[in-house]
Amino acid sequence: MNKKTMKMIIASGIIVIAVTIMAGINNTGFKMPGRATVNSVIEAEETSTTVTDFEKERPVIASIVNNRNGIAITWNKIEGATGYYIYRDGKKICQVKKETTKYTDKGANKNGTLYGFSIMAYKTINGKTYKSVISPGVKSCFLKGSSIDILTKKAGNTHVSWRKNSKANGYQVQYSTKQSFKKARVKTVKGQNKKSAKLSKLKNTKSYYVRLRGYVRKGKKKYYSHWSTCAKIIPWNGKWEFAGYSKIHTDSATLYFSSAPKTKKKTVCINAGHGTKGGESVMTLCHPDGSGKVTGGSTAAGAIRATSINSGTVLNDGTTEAQATLKLAMVVKKKLLKAGYNVLMVREGEDSQIDNIGRTVFANNCADYHIALHYDSSSSDKGAFYISVPENKSYRNMYPVSKNWKKHNKLGKNLVWGMENAGVKIYGKGEMAIDLTQTSYSTIPSVDLEVGDKSSNHSNKALKTIASGIVKGMNK
Ligand SMILES: [Zn+2]
């Protein structure tokens, strides 16, 4: 502040008083002469006093948390600030405008690294910048977020696994019946190498949301990673349409939410074909109306009942079809999640106690699309195809086939198109018409995809190609 300004301030004090009195007299809106000049003097006065106050202000960092891709801080607003400078480890990293009171430092993203932050408010008047006192420093150790790998509920046992973070000292798993995680239970898992946990006391009839985060200790402090995207355990619901036709459904299905930046808001059920112990000794109705199969397949034409789920074929290298479809399903799940789809899984282990109708009913009620993965029992490496809906009038007129058969075929065509584009060998026109139990109970677009046969290459690379094709087909 220079001497000239000081004089103006003293002078303005008198003018302000004069103006107040005059304003009192002129309540009717009478235009005061010379008002603009008076105002500018008042402004100068306000500025000068607040500058002195401003330079004494000390912002405070109110919160510091690890985000998905950096460290986020928030601070209290300083009245009159033009903006704020942000310092990381003593170095100014950026400046933000006055409306802003939060910032995510994407540069603070090295897993397991401790970062310190402080901020300073500044005010610019006539090209001159005035600074506040610097805030007290706060620290956070950036820890990369973990993601749920597999979440299952079988025979009352809930099990969650994740990919471990080598810098974490442990994990917190939260589970709640609410997606907001209100009143969530917390399970703390101590240990650097831990990557799974059992969750207890979950009610069998309720859905649960599960999420987790890692923590790291630095000195006496514990720092947490960002929460993972949640996954949801969905138990069987006997009130669902066609639920009464399923015989095996004691396991829960799991809905995985995509953490992609842009989600599709669609859920795809990925059904790893076969893999239900005891499924062959239980019979279920082929059609909900009790009519017979209109084509042959694994069950003969005319059959009223079929095994609730069979064990599938064995590939030429000795891998069971159930093992091969599971391996593929896990790759497809990962790719779909990455592409923005939510994924409903009805089997993620060797055995899932959910039969074919059960899987279909789960998909009908908790997904928008249902894709079952299979390998055909031929040995000629004939290529991939989907099972289309037979051109049979009574079958296509039977509910729910009547309402959905066009959608099933369209989905099948898209998936085969996608696989062909990804470089998967396709059999003939890419379809074969068979009356399937899955189709007979599906109320959403649903297909059985035969991704190859007993001679097909099912290396990781081949599975990735198939999975890319499925994603392409879904995006079409
Ligand atoms: Zn199969």
Please provide a written account of the structure.
By secondary structure, this protein is α+β, with helices and mostly antiparallel strands. Helices cover 25% and strands 31% of the residues. Strands 11, 12, 14, 15, 16, 17, 18, 21, 22, 23, 24 and 25 form a twelve-stranded mixed beta sheet that branches. Strand 3 and strand 4 form a beta hairpin. Helix 1 (3-25) packs across helix 2, helix 3 (321-338) crosses helix 8 (460-475) and helix 6 packs across helix 8. The longest helix is centred in the first third of the chain and has 23 residues, at 3-25. The protein is elongated, with a radius of gyration of 33 Å. Bound molecules: zinc ion. Zinc ion (ZN) binds next to loops.
Summarize the structure.
By secondary structure, the protein is an alpha+beta fold. It has helices spanning 3-25, 35-54, 321-338, 356-366, 393-397, 401-422, 437-441, 460-475; strands spanning 61-66, 71-75, 83-88, 91-97, 102-105, 113-125, 128-131, 138-142, 148-154, 157-162, 170-176, 185-190, 196-199, 208-218, 221-224, 231-234, 253-256, 267-272, 283-285, 305-307, 342-345, 369-376, 384-388, 426-433, 446-453.
